[in-house]
Specification:
CATH class: Mainly Alpha
Radius of gyration: 19 Å
Number of helices: 8
CATH superfamily: Intergrase catalytic core
Strand order of the largest sheet: 1-2-3
């Protein structure tokens, strides 16, 4: 006789099942994380890695796939090849980020194609990125910080600046607006002039 699968009704869920833990950093925390990242052995690289993950809402796989040729220093642009069937786009690079890229490339003595490399002259691994971000989070006194928090932090930062849903959706490469909607629904600026 086949086993019956138990099905939970909506009444079986806790009353606060819709509540989501805060899985992003506010701008002051991102700033602390960036300062802490500079204090590592490879501070120039680690600072750039965290800055780009935040500014462009990069997933770990998108970050480690970045190549030197994706960065156009003359035009201050970077090509972001999105994964998960996302929308790949060219994005602007701000002045501080451009300077960080130039600092990192000036330290490199190799001609390897990847933007982020390890001390063994290999592309960074997912584990290495997790370690870099986690260590910077601990050093900054932020507790457990993981790379995907930087992607969420990007979405919430853009929403808090008043950017519309469609723009954030395209910037993060989401095909489905439902993946972007929670950033704009909880944006603090929406409630500024209520009282």
């Amino acid at each position: 006789m086949p086993k019956r699968r138990s099905v939970k009704s909506a009444d079986d869920r806790p009353a606060d099942a819709h509540v989501r833990a805060r899985d992003y950093l506010g701008q002051p925390d991102v700033d602390r994380l960036l300062v802490a990242s500079k204090k590592s052995r490879y501070g120039v690289r680690d600072h750039l890695l965290i800055l780009m993950m935040f500014r462009h809402g990069l997933r770990v796989s998108e970050t480690i796939a970045l190549r030197r040729q994706d960065v156009d220093l003359a035009q201050s642009r970077v090509w972001i090849a999105r994964l998960k069937n996302g929308l790949s786009v060219e994005q602007p690079v701000a002045g501080d980020e451009l300077r960080a890229i130039k600092r990192w490339l000036a330290r490199r003595e190799d001609a390897l194609p990847w933007l982020f490399v390890s001390e063994r002259k290999k592309p960074l691994t997912r584990q290495a990125v997790n370690y870099i971000v986690g260590t910077a989070g601990s050093r900054a006194g932020l507790g457990h910080v993981h790379p995907h928090m930087l992607r969420h932090s990007c979405g919430f930062a853009l929403a808090n600046k008043g950017r519309d849903l469609r723009l954030i959706q395209d910037y993060l490469g989401h095909r489905d607006p439902r993946h972007t909607a929670h950033y704009t629904r909880t944006a603090a600026h929406r409630f500024d002039d209520l009282w």
